[in-house]
## 1
Amino acid sequence: MKLLCHNKACSSYNSWLEIINKGFYFRSSDSHWVKRWCCKACGKNFSTATENPARWQKKRRINPQLVKLLSSNNSMRRSALLLNVDRKTVARRLPFLADLARRSQMKFLKDHQQLIHTVEFDDLETLEHTKCKPISVALAVEHKSRKILGFSVSSMPSKGLLAKSSREKYGFRIDQRPMGWELLFSSLQSLVVPNAEFRSDSNPHYTQYVKRYFPNSSHIKIEGKRGAVTGQGELKKVGFDPLFSINHTFAMLRANICRLIRKTWCTTKKLEALSDHIAIYVNFHNQVLLKNH
Ligand SMILES: [Zn+2]
């Protein structure tokens, strides 16, 4: 297959008429022979690698493995050890892989536009380095398939006994949760039908967002249940849980993203890194884990 000329200044831009073969070159970063072409009109060489998102990466061979490791309860440190690369390589690759995952997820969800009828949503609490800096992850799943439809990560002030000492030590912490819920619900508008059914626990904050973004929908609130020992407290100790899909998804997140495990020593140091890590997992969850069921 011939590629088109990518040079916008070229007289035969986007045409293959002037394109000739220019042999192959060996890419040592993943031991591949890459075919190359040349445009006779502008004299530029190019190949399938020119527009590849992993261009210039010396360790591109780790990318698919790294996605699997990070989505299977491995820390960044352990992933680096298993892949035989430096920790900094893994840290630098996290935003890159998250960007790819977000794009892939957007494409994946496009096939479900205006097809979702029942949504379960809730928040999961975790922390940033210390218990004094809690983080909230808002997440929405489709009731039937357990597909993750979206998430947002927000900082929140600590509650209860820790609230005072947290303020003394780290100062005032902004509550980003209202913005996180806005983001999540606005992203759901393209996927979910206007008269959908939303299910959540009885958190009083949720109603306004459902009403604002889906005025014709119905919102069913379910009283919280006691957590079971299995499933990191997310799975409930009842025979039938109406919020099973969201609780099961949270249990999977906690089991597969090492920094979300309760009482872990593997904590998040930066909010963005947690968001990137979840984005990588979400894409893996929807496109690999759920398909293999
Ligand atoms: Zn050209």
Note: The chain has two domains: 1-52, 67-289.
## 2
Amino acid sequence: MKKSVILGALLVGSALLFNQAISKEPGEAISEEDWALYQEGINPGEVFAEEEGGGLFEKPMGPKNLSCASCHVKDGEVEERVATAAAYYPKFDKDAGMIINLEQRIQICQSKYQEVKPFSLKSKENTALTTYLYYLAQGTKINVDTTSPVAKEYYDYGRYVFTLKRGKRNLSCQVCHEFAAGKVLRMQWLKPLGFEYNGIKGTTAADHWPAFRMTKNKVQTLQQRFQGCQKQAGQKKLPLGSKEMVALELYVKSLSNGAELKTPGLRR
Ligand code: HEC
Ligand code: HEC
């Protein structure tokens, strides 16, 4: 009985969600092309990963005319460590001398090896390359290190940022994703991030980001999703790639450790 009530509520929820996704608010709603793809069972995020991301991966750039593929493709295949890298970031990087995420690792290869000005973290190009690497890593289990001393420091700092109340409404990530978990906000279930929290089943959020967002009509990364929550909570958005965001990403992603990447996902 209880189960079917919940299921019913979920179905109503997703029907509403759908109506919203296809409503024609300019710039907000899904495009007709993407909606057509979606109806054929094709995730526009995968098309973006393969075409835009894969295209950039192969594209020679800079004074030496090198593409990512020039260095990272061996015998026609993207080398294993690059093809699975998405499962292990954020992690300590020797070149950076600190913990960085995959988006930032791409930037380092661009400046250090391709010798070009890196695509900014906000750019469609950086997101395309990132999404491509996450797409290649589909099926790899997330395994973010939280035990080395530096990773532990980031984990603790990430947890701190998660619990920090900010903005005019004095909200933290924790208020919505732990204290209010199981409740509904604007027709969406508030879920703990991770397998479960206090007996409430959660969402292994990091296994499906970057995701194509139907309401935004584009692919967003996990940090960009965090910014969406920050905006919704009336907070000043923390900058992409900042220590706070990388720590938050490491913390949230580690809660999905063990889950297989299903990237790019498809989200409202
Ligand atoms: C001239 C060769 C070269 C080019 C071009 C290059 N890289 Fe790299 N890349 C490297 C080397 C060398 C490393 C390893 C650095 C280390 O771990 O010491 C690396 C590391 C990486 C890693 C991290 C792998 C891991 O094990 O953590 C990723 C991801 C990556 N590159 C992606 C890219 C992408 C995407 C591009 C194109 C934008 C690119 N690289 C361009 C040489 C290159
Ligand atoms: C005002 C309440 C609220 C606050 C504060 C909030 N979120 Fe969210 N968050 C939501 C809602 C609602 C969703 C959409 C539900 C969904 O997609 O499962 C969501 C979705 C997410 C998702 C995607 C979940 C998934 O499975 O795709 C992540 C990750 C996330 N939030 C992280 C954060 C982080 C990190 C913070 C703090 C910076 C935060 N949220 C603050 C309400 C909130």
Note: The radius of gyration is 19 Å.
## 3
Amino acid sequence: MSCQLRPASEADIQAICDLVNGYAAQNLMLPRTPAQVRHALGDFLVAAAAGRVLGCGYLAALGPDLVEIRSLAVAPDRQGDGIGGLLVETLVQAARARGIKYVCALTLAPEFFARHGFTRVDRWSISPKLWGECVYCPKFHACDEIAMLKVLDS
Ligand SMILES: CC(C)(COP(=O)(O)OP(=O)(O)OC[C@H]1O[C@@H](n2cnc3c(N)ncnc32)[C@H](O)[C@@H]1OP(=O)(O)O)[C@@H](O)C(=O)NCCC(=O)NCCS
């Protein structure tokens, strides 16, 4: 895996949207607009090589103790190279450094997160996510995403 992880910048916004929205079109994740990405830009990490964005993801704060990994995606031609794992581990490490206790993800790839120490939980155990966002989602009553949670050691 020859790529570098770095904070996202303004110049990455379109590439992040293209990556995420390609999977959103397949119903694998939620879409993001450039405005949404710009709003969260300070929290986004990208994996890049030779000027190309190969992967992305960010931590969204849901409460004082809880963050969510969002918009985690790796380019189709670079999957299986360890980039997604590196993004998850780096985001978890960033949460740990901030003294966060819980990292969650709502995902259609639970086995991938399980490899990184996440366990499946009832979605109501991450209720700030549900009350803060999911209730506004058109898929709320037919959500097929699985809640995964990792408890960080203090
Ligand atoms: C999920 C995703 C981020 C993983 O990134 P990646 O760079 O391919 O992951 P890694 O190379 O670190 O790990 C690959 C391993 O995870 C497994 N894996 C990847 N995607 C998986 C999925 N959807 N379900 C279960 N396991 C998955 C692979 O089988 C592989 O296992 P192996 O090493 O035994 O072959 C990437 O496949 C992706 O972008 N998928 C589409 C978007 C998506 O589903 N994002 C997650 C939304 S929260």
Note: Residues 23, 28-29, 72-74, 79-85, 105, 107-109, 111-112 surround coenzyme A (CB under 6 Å).
## 4
Amino acid sequence: MLLLSEICQFTSLPYQLKRSARRRSVALQIRNGALTVLAPVAVAKQQIEHFILQKQHWVERHLKAQQQSVVTPDYLLSALLPLLDEKLQLKVVTDKVSAVSRDGQTLWLQLSARVSTGRRRQKQLDLLKSWYQQQAQQWFTARVFYWQQQMQVQPADIQIKNWQRKWGSCTSKGLLSFNWRLMLAPAWVADYVVVHELAHLTHMDHSPAFWQRVALFYPEFQQAKGWFKQHQHLLDLC
Ligand SMILES: [Zn+2]
């Protein structure tokens, strides 16, 4: 019985079937959390499903791994918030006014009793977002100050932005901008963005000369770029 229910559950799994005259055998492909079956034109659907069934554990394992890796974690639900290289324990309490305060490794989130139940989650996210923005302002100010001395450049000013999927920018007037969401990344990754933007004060493009300058001050820049490719979905609160 157990086996039967497993079969039913499994065959209800959606997959895309791609038939090709050139194919000699059935093959499975998992990309972006979805299953695709590549099959020769003449193979019966029943045979294909039998093949999937044989590979059930492989498919499930890979689907699960990929689906987990593309979904932004629910930091509120886990009550564990990343802040550069630290993890802060989130504690939510009801109080007279709404506020966020840090005490060691604990982040206290006071929610005003006047916030209605339906609005509580959004209010928590809003409070955390502005707290992270303050952290970003302080951290980037300090790191830009450090790196501008190393690199012998003078930015005009810095500002913190709320972009969805953009991490930093530099204008021709020397205004540097950084996304507050970088506070959810490891410090070495956020530092790479600082060096990248400061290098634009010397080269306003992504020419080989620009990358040479980045490499001079930040030799691990390729690893940092790789980190963004793999993990940028982690950089949001929800
Ligand atoms: Zn750039």
Note: The CA atoms of residues 42 and 83 lie 55 Å apart.
